[in-house]
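Supplementary notes for students who missed Thursday's class. We covered one full example, reproduced here. Read the sequence, then the structure, then the short commentary at the end.
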Amino acid sequence: MRFGSLGPWLALGALSVAVPASAQQHVSFVTCPVAQDTGDRSDVCFFVRHEGERYGVSSPPDWGNPQLGHKLLVEGVVSEDGRECGGVEIEGRASVLPELSSECDEIAPATPEILALELGRRPDITEAQRAMILADPASSLQIMRLPALPVPEVALGRTETIYFPFERDRASGPDAMLMLELARLAEATSDVAISVRAFRGATLLDNGEILEEREDMARQRGEKIVGILEGLGAPEGSIDLEIVSEVEEPTGRADWQSRRAELRVSTTR
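Structure (token representation):
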């Protein structure tokens, strides 16, 4: 079932009996994110409500944070002891769905309980940088260089996997760095061969409904990856692209892993 037809069962889901979340419980649902006002000391955070429970939500780097005006597909495992944005933490993925949903416009006011949380400060700088700015306010006008992401290690003949948000062909920042390192490896390898297998996915939601990506999503991802690798210097004609259009049977457990591409750099010698 496509997202555009989910309205009736979402309304029914709101009438279900609330069940407290338990550690390691798998959850998969679509809902509106709520922006939580945290006062003037930090940026807003986002949470969702599901079956009477409040969950804090965030996204992997470069997937895009939850945003008002769009529903959110939340998939993951309930954390044993983690808390986020005043709610239970979920270890998994949160995908901003492309369709506009004007009803997703709630901003929760700050409360004493929220203001007491350690949610970070605005801007996102270290205590040493904060002290420097207090000593010399002019230094706040300088560019702040954030720590670089670690460079991923790649190897010939090893399959690397990158993952995607629902119905998107843009992978995360770390995965983009992985493609860059694979392209560098390919450029430095004689008689190189690159294989790319692109997939589309489906997710089994908690209410039993299945959310399936559109039929051309695997091809869109695969062709974009090929274009990126060639643009990064992969030798012309060295890439073999396989499109896997069949959807794996969703189970409601880490279904986000079906939205992926598998890349391998090897040599024909």
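Commentary. The chain has a mean pLDDT of 82. The two ends are 46 Å apart (CA to CA). If anything here is unclear, bring it to office hours.
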